[in-house]
Amino acid sequence: MRRPRLWGSIAVALLFCVAFAHFCVRIVPADGPSVLAPVPRAARSADAGPLLIPVEGVPASALADTFTQARAHGARPHDAIDIMAARGRAVLAAADGRVEKIFWSHDGGRTLYQRSADGRLLYYYAHLDGYAPGLREGQGLRRGQRIAMVGSTGNADPSAPHLHFAVHAMTPGEPWYGGRAINPYPLLARR
């Protein structure tokens, strides 16, 4: 007589475990963000463009279109905008996508390349002081997720920390260092 009662207890425990797993457990892919940061209020303002302003707390009205300014005494175009901010300020993912490359370069210092979710754009973040803990190549990113900190690595002036932010239009299969530079300013701020 004890056996049927034992099987009944096992059946009830098994049903409880199945119900718990079904209603209470959420499976998240390993490359997903652990915590999604809320979109900063400044990036949701009426003067913001379709991309999130990638530096926490910087309103669209504080941006300057430096895309066409020359660099290195006129030797090369800027092809980006500089977003001035205090060293250590959070750098946020401008859109959903994936970390394509984490790279150190002479000019850009600590850099991060993010490919958009549809693969048609590449976002380039440079002069970073550091990366968010656990950030790695191939990791999925959500718009507004903290990815790095503003700095002045590479050829940036140490007394003027900023984020060098560029956007490149990509063709399918094009590598992270390719693409055609497009002006990020109108994507971050409405004119």
From TrEMBL:
GO terms for molecular function: metal ion binding; metalloendopeptidase activity. Keywords: Hydrolase, Metal-binding, Metalloprotease, Protease, Zinc. Its cofactor is Zn(2+). InterPro entries: Cell_wall_metabolism_enzyme, Dup_hybrid_motif, M23ase_b-sheet_dom. Transmembrane segments: none annotated. GO terms for biological process: proteolysis. It comes from the Bacteria. Residues 77-169 form the M23ase beta-sheet core domain. Pfam families: Peptidase_M23. This is M23ase beta-sheet core domain-containing protein. It comes from Sphingobium cupriresistens LL01. The lineage of its organism: Bacteria, Pseudomonadati, Pseudomonadota, Alphaproteobacteria, Sphingomonadales.
